[in-house]
Amino acid sequence: MKYFLVHRGDDISRQLAEQFHTLAAEHGTPLCEEAPDIVLSIGGDGTLLHAFHKYKEQLETIAFVGIHTGRLGFFADWKPDELGVLAQLIFQTRTPEELSVVHYPVVEIELTTEAGIETHLALNEFTLKGIEETLVAQLDINDEKFEMFRGDGICISSPSGSTAYNKSLGGAIVHPSLAAIQIAEIASINNRVYRTLGSPIILPKHHHCDIYPREHQHMLLSIDHQYIQRSDVKSIRCRVAADLKVKFARFRPFPFWNRVREAFIGYDIK
């Protein structure tokens, strides 16, 4: 199998990357940046997000695996001292078809702007926030007007992103086997003119939400770790990507709820 490796750039991540390259060369496993079969992420969740966006056009053919060298790596199954074990498991896998993988849904974002239509993918979340003033937007669900929003912003997360920014906004944690998106408000303002539900909303696959910001609203948009400022957005459609999922290679079991417990509660439950 062909591999590529993305690392965070700190000393330990760089050392682990050099160690893996050496082991791969010894086993005749080719390094290939253009079309790898497996992509290793060494660092934290931000490193994995960077790898995802680097290869978002090749999600059907690439599997990701993470080695955690930071404080909290939700996408990472492996610790630094387990690199040798992981390497052997990868080298023993002769073809991509032999990989055991899990598939996670991602968010599809369709921006209609004054210049045309743009399509983006988010592994964790998409957010929009007002700049210089509060965000004002109409929110529709399945082409029906749902609410008028005024506040700091709106967060649309995937199930795998439900443990990230969405959780800090009071959103629910959603198992990534469920194809859904979650809408969470960021400091909404409620009065007689602007009324919102005030609770997170979970939409299943085949449902969508449309956001219509006020004309020429100056906004900060984020797609995972990428930030852009725009004032030409006419509408935003968010939904579960219909035909694309991200693949993670699983060389051993690591149940999702174990990840949640380890990340937020710890093992000492009394």
From TrEMBL:
<dbReference type="GO" id="GO:0019674">
    <property type="term" value="P:NAD+ metabolic process"/>
</dbReference>
<comment type="function">
    <text>Involved in the regulation of the intracellular balance of NAD and NADP, and is a key enzyme in the biosynthesis of NADP. Catalyzes specifically the phosphorylation on 2'-hydroxyl of the adenosine moiety of NAD to yield NADP.</text>
</comment>
<dbReference type="GO" id="GO:0005737">
    <property type="term" value="C:cytoplasm"/>
</dbReference>
<feature type="binding site">
    <location>
        <position position="226"/>
    </location>
    <ligand>
        <name>NAD(+)</name>
    </ligand>
</feature>
<feature type="binding site">
    <location>
        <begin position="163"/>
        <end position="168"/>
    </location>
    <ligand>
        <name>NAD(+)</name>
    </ligand>
</feature>
<dbReference type="GO" id="GO:0046872">
    <property type="term" value="F:metal ion binding"/>
</dbReference>
<dbReference type="InterPro" id="IPR016064">
    <property type="entry name" value="NAD/diacylglycerol_kinase_sf"/>
</dbReference>
<dbReference type="InterPro" id="IPR017438">
    <property type="entry name" value="ATP-NAD_kinase_N"/>
</dbReference>
<feature type="binding site">
    <location>
        <position position="187"/>
    </location>
    <ligand>
        <name>NAD(+)</name>
    </ligand>
</feature>
<feature type="binding site">
    <location>
        <begin position="45"/>
        <end position="46"/>
    </location>
    <ligand>
        <name>NAD(+)</name>
    </ligand>
</feature>
<comment type="similarity">
    <text>Belongs to the NAD kinase family.</text>
</comment>
<dbReference type="GO" id="GO:0051287">
    <property type="term" value="F:NAD binding"/>
</dbReference>
<keyword id="KW-0418">Kinase</keyword>
<dbReference type="Pfam" id="PF20143">
    <property type="entry name" value="NAD_kinase_C"/>
</dbReference>
<keyword id="KW-0521">NADP</keyword>
<feature type="binding site">
    <location>
        <position position="152"/>
    </location>
    <ligand>
        <name>NAD(+)</name>
    </ligand>
</feature>
<keyword id="KW-0808">Transferase</keyword>
<dbReference type="InterPro" id="IPR017437">
    <property type="entry name" value="ATP-NAD_kinase_PpnK-typ_C"/>
</dbReference>
<dbReference type="InterPro" id="IPR002504">
    <property type="entry name" value="NADK"/>
</dbReference>
<keyword id="KW-0520">NAD</keyword>
<feature type="active site" description="Proton acceptor">
    <location>
        <position position="45"/>
    </location>
</feature>
<feature type="binding site">
    <location>
        <begin position="124"/>
        <end position="125"/>
    </location>
    <ligand>
        <name>NAD(+)</name>
    </ligand>
</feature>
<keyword id="KW-0963">Cytoplasm</keyword>
<keyword id="KW-0547">Nucleotide-binding</keyword>
<dbReference type="GO" id="GO:0005524">
    <property type="term" value="F:ATP binding"/>
</dbReference>
<dbReference type="GO" id="GO:0006741">
    <property type="term" value="P:NADP+ biosynthetic process"/>
</dbReference>
<keyword id="KW-0067">ATP-binding</keyword>
<dbReference type="GO" id="GO:0003951">
    <property type="term" value="F:NAD+ kinase activity"/>
</dbReference>
<protein>
    <recommendedName>
        <fullName>NAD kinase</fullName>
        <ecNumber>2.7.1.23</ecNumber>
    </recommendedName>
</protein>
<dbReference type="Pfam" id="PF01513">
    <property type="entry name" value="NAD_kinase"/>
</dbReference>
<feature type="binding site">
    <location>
        <position position="50"/>
    </location>
    <ligand>
        <name>NAD(+)</name>
    </ligand>
</feature>
<feature type="binding site">
    <location>
        <position position="150"/>
    </location>
    <ligand>
        <name>NAD(+)</name>
    </ligand>
</feature>
